[in-house]
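ok new one. same drill as before - structure tokens go in, u give me an amino acid for every spot. 249 of them this time. try not to just spam alanines like last time pls lmao
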């Protein structure tokens, strides 16, 4: 999977143009799921722009209640039928807006309940990495989601995105070896809890057309959650092509 998180960028018209440019830049999606995650204001217009293509549509966040007095929030019931997936637990939600691990778990469960595939983002800060706590942090974030579940989801219902906070929007990327080490640990941790297998695990953190192939060459990295570069359709297409090459025998 290669998913582009547009964050708080583009107007609606610019977003529609970008979605069309992405479709043009991605000549084929064979062997890889391709998704774009625009701001909430763009979802319905971009949904129309993507109609008839293989590029999937996702939301950058979601609330855990279906309806109620929650001014400014968007529920999974509102997204179901329009979006294919939701992103929960992005580090900017956790660290800029104080989102707790248990809240991420509730968003995860609510999304699944409405048939939305979920990208669950986990990752450590630079201080946590320097203190040797990377595995502890991602395990805690994963366990908070497991605690919210009554039954384990199927491996095709969710995706994990490992995004070291120190590599998001900084231009600093984890080395392929660093990313592989944590991604492999995540898969092992999930398998220890759910015996029916692990979901795909992506890497997110300053992924570019220049470094994508080296990241995808690692055995456990199953794609990328792309930030800033997803706003540049041609380079995003290069990342998709690298993912396709990595999956070919």
């Amino acid at each position: 999977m290669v998913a582009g998180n547009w964050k708080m960028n583009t107007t609606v018209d610019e977003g529609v143009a970008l979605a069309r440019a992405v479709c043009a830049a991605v000549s084929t999606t064979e062997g890889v799921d391709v998704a774009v995650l625009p701001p909430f204001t763009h979802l319905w217009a971009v949904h129309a722009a993507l109609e008839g293509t293989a590029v999937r549509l996702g939301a950058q966040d979601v609330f855990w209640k279906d309806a109620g007095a929650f001014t400014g929030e968007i529920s999974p019931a509102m997204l179901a039928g329009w979006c294919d997936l939701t992103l929960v637990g992005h580090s900017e939600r956790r660290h800029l807006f104080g989102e707790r691990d248990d809240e991420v778990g509730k968003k995860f469960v609510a999304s699944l309940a409405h048939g939305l595939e979920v990208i669950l983002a986990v990752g450590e800060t630079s201080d946590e990495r320097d203190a040797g706590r990377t595995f502890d942090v991602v395990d805690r974030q994963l366990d908070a989601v497991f605690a919210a579940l009554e039954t384990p989801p199927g491996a095709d219902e969710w995706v994990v995105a490992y995004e070291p906070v120190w590599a998001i929007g900084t231009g600093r990327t984890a080395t392929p070896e660093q990313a592989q080490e944590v991604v492999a640990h995540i898969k092992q941790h999930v398998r220890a809890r759910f015996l029916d297998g692990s979901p795909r695990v992506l890497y997110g953190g300053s992924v570019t057309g220049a470094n994508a192939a080296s990241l995808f060459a690692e055995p456990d990295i199953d794609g990328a959650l792309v930030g800033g570069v997803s706003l540049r359709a041609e380079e995003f297409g290069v990342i998709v092509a690298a993912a396709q090459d990595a999956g070919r025998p």
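The two ends are 17 Å apart (CA to CA). and btw The chain has a mean pLDDT of 95.
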